[in-house]
Design a protein that fits this description.
Elements (H helix, E strand, L loop, with lengths): L6 H20 L2 H30 L8 H4 L3 H19 L4 H22 L8 H15 L7 E3 L3 H5 L10 E3 L16 E5 L11 H6 L3 E8 L11 E7 L5
Parallel strand pairs: 1-2, 1-3
Antiparallel strand pairs: 3-5, 4-5
Helix pairs in contact: 1-2, 1-4, 2-4
Amino acid sequence: MKSIVGLPVAALFSIGLLVWEVRLWKGNSEERRNETTFLLLIILPILLVIAFHSITWYFGTGALALRRFMALIVPLFAIGAVRGYEVLESFLTFRKSIVVILLRIGLVVLLWTTVISFYSLPVKYNPMEITIKEACDWIKSEGLSGRPVFFYDHYVSFFLDKNPFDPRQARERVYHVSQPSKDLPTGALVVWDSQFAESHGKLSFESLVRCPDFRLLESFKVDQKRHPTLFYEVHVFEKIDANP
C-alpha cells in the first residue's frame, strides 16, 4: 500500500477502521446503521478488489494488482482516512481553532512531502512508454496522424491526441481478430504492441504479417543495451488494398 495510498493515508485509514469497529459493536442503533453503511460502501469494496486481484493472480488468470487497478479504491481509502483524521483532531486540538489550523497545515505538508519523496516529479516515462511515444512521434513526423488508428495500448491515443471514443479517429482493437483487416478503412493504422495486443486483444503479430491487406511500416524496440531483460516491441501497420 505504500506506493498506492502512502503511509500517512494508510495510517489514518487504520485509525478509521478502529473507529468503525468500536462504533459498530458499542454504538447505539443509529451509529450501528451508519457503520453498516460504511462497511457496505467503503470497506467491502476495498476487500473485494484486493481479494479479486489476489485470487486471480494466484491462479494465473488475472493481472497483478498494479497501481492502475488499485486506483479504483484510492478514493475509498481517502474517505476512511478522513474519518481517522477527525478522531485525531478531536483528541489533539481540544477544539481550539488555531491548533486545528496548524494540525491541518501539518497534514497537508506531510502528504505533499510523502508524495514528492516517493515519486520523482515530473513523473518519467518507463521504457515501454518511451517506445510507444517513439512510435507515435514517428507517425506524426510521417504525416500519418490524421488517419484512423487502431491500438491496444491507450498511450497511443494519448500521444497522438486522438479521441478513443470516436472510431473515426481511434479505436481500441480491430473489429475482427480472425480477419484483422475486415471493416478497416484503407490507409488506417494498426499499432501493435507486445504487451497488450496479444495478451489482451488476442491479436498475434504473425496474423498481421501474414495478412496481405497489411503492410509493416516501422518497428520500434526497447533499447536492449540499457534494459537487457526487457523485451518490448511496437509495430506500425498500414491497411492497404491488396486487390484493387
